[in-house]
Amino acid sequence: MTGVNSASYSPTNTAAACPSVGSSWAAANSPLPPTPNKELCSCMYNSLTCVVSSGTETSNYGKLFGTVCGLGDGSQCNGILSNATTGKFGAYGMCNSTEQLAFAMNEYYLAQTGSNQASACDFGGAATTKAAASANGNCKALMSQAGTGGTGTVTAQPTGTGSGSGGNSGGSSGSSGSSSSAAASYHGAPTAQNGLWQAVGLVSLAALSGFGMILL
């Protein structure tokens, strides 16, 4: 086997670029999904009045997402969109599945009026009401950028590196029952796409291809 002398080795590479969206590639190269922000998700959850009941099994989340997102015009789920193919992302599209489902339920609940609202936070016993915490401090700033319907772009950073459940400055004490990462508990809002993982794989492959075996 013939190797390359290290003194003569001059590696070259080409910057990785995503291909166009097509039958074999489902990830648009822009825009990128929102950066994971546990503090934002925790602040959002604590501001809700209608949330997922503690006894609701996560195995039922898929059906519940389909139910709540299929009601009315579906706008209650705009804030949790995560579609890598179309490049449409809600501000809370990176939150865990309990926080996302609670957000959608709460949006639907708030849209109802009068006697309709009294029964809007039920979903067959899968939802319940709680006291909503007022956002202040950094929570207020983060949620202001996210917007009322969660369709804004959050550029503010969370406070400190230990943000999230119990670690923010906005009076939030963390989401109830499920503060794990989205990857660990995600059960799939209806519009989620896996194209982003294809993009990550391509970039990783391109990075590795620039390295060869150097034999001294």
Structural overview:
By secondary structure, this protein is mostly helical. It has one domain. It has 7 helices and 4 strands; from the N terminus they run H-E-H-E-E-H-H-E-H-H-H. The chain has a two-stranded antiparallel ribbon. The chain has a two-stranded antiparallel ribbon with strand order 2-3. The longest helix is centred in the middle third of the chain and has 15 residues, at 97-111. Residues 161-174, 176-188 and 190-216 have low confidence and may be disordered.
What would the principal axes of the Cα set say about the shape?
Answer: elongated
Number of helices: 7
SS-based class: mainly alpha
Number of DSSP-assigned strands: 4
- The portion of residues forming beta strands comes to under 5%
Spatial extent as radius of gyration: 21 Å
Q: List unreliable stretches of 5+ residues.
A: 161-174, 176-188, 190-216
DSSP helix fraction = 25-40%
Task: Give the end-to-end Cα distance, rounded to a whole number of Å.
Answer: 13 Å
Trace the largest sheet across and list its strands.
1-4
Tally of domains: 1
Instruction: Report the oligomer.
Output: single chain
Largest pleated sheet: 2 strands, antiparallel
What's the overall average pLDDT, rounded?
76
SSE order: HEHEEHHEHHH
Write the layout of secondary structure elements.
Elements: H1 38-46, E1 50-52, H2 61-69, E2 82-83, E3 88-89, H3 97-111, H4 115-120, E4 127-129, H5 137-146, H6 182-185, H7 195-209
Antiparallel strand pairs: 1-4, 2-3
